[in-house]
Amino acid sequence: MKHGSPFGTHRVLDPIGVLPQPAWKLDNTMAIYDNEILIDVSALNIDSASFTQIKAACENDEGRIAAMVIGIVAQRGKHHNPVTGSGGMLIGTVAQIGSALADKIDVKVGDKIATLVSLSLTPLRIEAIKKIHLHKDQIEIKGQAILFETGLYARLPHDLDENLALAILDVAGAPAQTARLVQPGHTVVVIGGGGKSGTLCIYEAKKRAGATGCVIGVSPFAKDCERMKGLGWADHALQVDATDALALMDAVAAVTEGQLADVVINCVNIPNTEMGSILATRQHGKIYFFSMATSFTAAALGAEGVGKDVEMIVGNGYATGHAEFALGLLRESPKLRALFEQLYV
Question: Of 40, 193, 201, 324, whose CB is crowded by the most CB atoms within 10 A?
Fold first, then answer.
């Protein structure tokens, strides 16, 4: 076996000299280097921004969705949506471990794992699409993928359903980062609070902010707001379109006596919510843009344009220990687990 870069640059075909994530095309031949892991893939969890775009482009037609996903992978050697720039993650079974990694990793052939790195940097080959779950952002496939030496992964837990674990691990960074940002007494706004990552963030924010804090969920959909109210972790559920920046600011101001938010967590899967996030945040507050639909140019220049001195945090999907942290939330809250089992199992 040949030895490759720990970062996977040996798989980059175009343009040469860049890392796998920003590359346009990767080598997705499945003969592994001695520091790679070969995975037999059973399912892809397409990130929410990407799957929303694909479904809209294909008008929710499963045949067209399958063709588009296969086309992206055939063209790029990875699932890297050229419109949103994002990917997702996968679950599968370890099929082969390179000789240079055999004594360095804690998995063996036959173990089921979830990758914790984006599909946008993962060499992938799809043989067949078995089933598309439109409302779960999940696609069952027959295929293979490569995990690089520096690639993060997690063993699938024995006490949780695989599809449930896949859904949670895909957004594990969001509640972990929320735990870092929210302090007792904080006012927290979660934009996209009715979605998967948003629900986890609201739950964690409520724990951290405590009785003296205030957690506000935002969604344009009545059903999401009803769910947030029913779960009981959001002090307010605002039915507002976050692309209407002034409307969002006014709604948050109305329930905070004009004080706005100490922390805003943006979990939406659509573009053009940067200014709503900024205007809903108090001076010197913090914004965590978990959404992969975020334009960081729009956020930076927009904050400058309205004179907001706010700390804006890039939505790094990785935080130390985030996989076990997110899965642990389901184990500690029967209500949270029941909700996600209903949605993803």
Answer: 201
Tokens found for residue 153: 């992964």
Q: In sequence order, which ranges of 77-217 are alpha helices (DSSP H)?
A: 162-170, 173-181, 196-209
Q: Does one domain contain both 44 and 104? A: yes
Residue 165 domain flag: no
Q: What is the pTM of this model?
A: 0.90
User: 128 lies in a domain?
Assistant: yes
Q: Given CA atoms 300, 303, 309, 310 in this order, what sign does their dihedral have?
A: negative
- Domain final residue, candidates 156, 182, 213: 156
Distance of CA 191 to the CA centre of its chain: 14
CB of 205 closer than 8 Å to CB of 197:
no
User: Quick one: which of 43, 47, 21 has its CA closest to 268?
Assistant: 47
Which neighbouring-strand residues pair with 216?
A: 189, 236
CA separation for the pair 56, 301 (Å, rounded): 29
44-64 in b/e form (b: 16+ CB < 10 A) is bbbbbbbbbbbbeebeeeeee
- Express each pLDDT in 66-110 by its tens digit: 999 999 999 999 999 999 999 999 999 999 999 999 999 999 999
pLDDT digits (tens, 9 = 90+) for 264-282: 999 998 999 999 999 999 9
